[in-house]
Specification:
heterodimer, A: 166 residues, alpha+beta, 2 domains, 6-stranded antiparallel sheet, 48% helix, disordered C terminus, B: 190 residues, 8-stranded antiparallel sheet, 3-stranded antiparallel sheet
Chain lengths: 166, 190
C-alpha cells in the first residue's frame, strides 16, 4: 500500500515538475516586455518593469471595456497593417530600423532576435522599451475582435451564424 | 558520399541565393549640415514593405496600387513613352538649361536617369548648388506602369526592386543637407 502511494506521489511529482518546466519554457519562448524610464532631473523618478509577454493578452482583460472600444475604434483602419507589419517584422532579419541622432536626442529602434527595441535618450529622460514583435500581433488581433459599438465581432458572428435562416 | 556531395553543394548555393534575395533592405539616410545637424537613418527590410503595402487602404491606394489622375500626366501616355525609352539605345532625352536650373533626363546602363542642378541665388560656390540625382532601373519603371491605365503599381515596383541588385535610387545634396536612398543587402546604413 505504502509502495503504491509512493509511486502515485512520485508520478504526481514528475507531472507537476514537467508542467512547471513546460510553463517555464513557454514563458521563456514568448519573451518579455521591458519598460524602463529614468528621468534626468534632480528629483527624477526611475521606473523598471519587466513582464513575461504571455501575460499581455491576459492584462488586456483588465483594461476597461470602454477604453478597449476606444482604442479599437481609433486603430480599426490600421489593424490589418499592424498585423501584417508585425508578422513581416517577426520574419525579417535583425537590424537597426530607425536611428535619429541630434544635439537634443538619440532615438534608436532595432529588431533583434524576435523583439523590437526602442531606446530614446533626450535631455529629460532615457527610455527603453522592448517587446516581442509577435506580442503586437496578439494585441492587434484582440483589438480587431472588439466592435467599436461594444459588441464583440466573434460574438456577433456566432449569433448571426446561429440565427434562423442563416 | 561522392554522390551526395554535389547535391549538398547545390542545396547550400540555392539557400544562399534565396537568402540573399530575401534579405534586401531599403535605406534612407539624411544628414543635416553643421555640427548640430540631425542625422537620420531608416532601414526597411524589403519583404516588410512587400507585405505591408497591400494591407494599406486609403482613398487612392489599394492593394499596393495607387490611383493617378490622367490629367496629372498632362495627357502623356507613360507606357508608350517608356516603351520608346526601353527600346532605344543609351541616350540623352531631355536637357533643359537655364540661369538657375539645369535638367537632364537620360538612359544609361539599363537605368532611367534624372539629374537636376538648381543654382540658388546664382551662386558660383558649388556648395550652394542643389543637386538631385535619381536613378531607377527600367525594370522597376516597367513594373510601376504594369497596372491599369490610371494607376501605378507600387507593389510591383518594390518587388522588381527587391529582385534587382544593389542600386542607389536618389541622392539630394544642398548646403543644408544630404539625402541618399538606396537598396542593398546590408542590414545597416554605411
Amino acid at each position: 500500500m505504502i509502495t503504491r502511494i509512493g509511486a502515485l506521489a512520485g508520478a504526481a511529482g514528475v507531472m507537476l515538475y514537467g508542467s512547471m518546466i513546460g510553463a517555464s519554457v513557454a514563458i521563456y519562448d514568448a519573451g518579455a516586455v521591458r519598460v524602463s524610464v529614468h528621468e534626468k532631473s534632480a528629483d527624477g523618478k526611475s521606473i523598471n518593469l519587466v513582464l513575461p509577454a504571455v501575460v499581455v493578452p491576459m492584462g488586456l482583460g483588465f483594461v476597461p471595456e470602454e477604453e478597449l472600444r476606444k482604442a479599437s475604434r481609433e486603430m480599426q483602419p490600421w489593424l490589418p497593417v499592424i498585423l501584417e507589419a508585425s508578422q513581416a517584422l517577426a520574419d525579417s532579419p535583425d537590424g537597426v530600423l530607425v536611428e535619429v541622432v541630434s544635439s537634443e536626442e538619440h532615438v534608436n529602434i532595432a529588431k533583434r532576435g524576435g523583439s523590437l527595441y526602442v531606446d530614446v535618450d533626450d535631455s529629460d529622460a532615457t527610455v527603453h522599451v522592448s517587446f516581442p514583435v509577435k506580442t503586437v500581433a496578439v494585441v492587434a488581433s484582440k483589438l480587431a475582435t472588439i466592435e467599436p459599438d461594444g459588441e464583440k465581432a466573434a460574438e456577433r458572428s456566432h449569433a448571426s451564424s446561429s440565427a434562423p435562416g442563416v | 558520399m561522392k554522390r551526395t556531395l554535389p547535391g549538398l553543394v547545390i542545396m547550400i548555393l540555392a539557400s544562399a541565393v534565396l537568402a540573399a534575395a530575401a534579405d534586401r533592405w531599403l535605406h534612407i539616410r539624411v544628414d543635416e549640415a553643421g555640427p548640430h545637424g540631425e542625422r537620420v537613418r531608416v532601414n526597411i527590410p524589403m519583404e516588410v514593405a512587400e507585405k505591408v503595402l497591400p494591407a494599406i487602404h486609403t482613398e487612392d491606394l489599394h492593394n499596393g496600387k495607387v490611383k493617378v489622375n490622367e490629367a496629372e500626366f498632362d495627357g502623356v501616355d507613360l507606357r508608350v513613352l517608356l516603351e520608346a525609352v526601353r527600346t532605344t539605345k543609351d541616350n540623352e532625352f531631355v536637357t533643359v538649361e537655364s540661369d538657375h536650373e539645369n535638367l537632364r533626363v537620360a538612359k544609361a546602363g539599363g537605368n532611367l536617369l534624372i539629374q537636376v542642378r538648381e543654382n540658388k541665388g546664382h551662386a558660383k560656390n558649388t556648395e550652394q548648388v542643389e543637386k538631385v540625382d535619381i536613378s531607377v532601373p527600367l525594370q522597376v519603371v516597367e513594373a510601376l506602369l504594369a497596372g491599369g491605365k490610371d494607376e501605378l503599381d507600387l507593389l510591383g515596383a518594390i518587388r522588381a526592386l527587391s529582385a534587382y541588385g544593389d542600386v542607389t535610387l536618389v541622392t539630394v545634396q544642398d548646403e543644408s543637407s544630404k539625402v541618399r536612398i538606396w537598396v542593398d543587402s546590408q542590414n545597416a546604413s554605411e
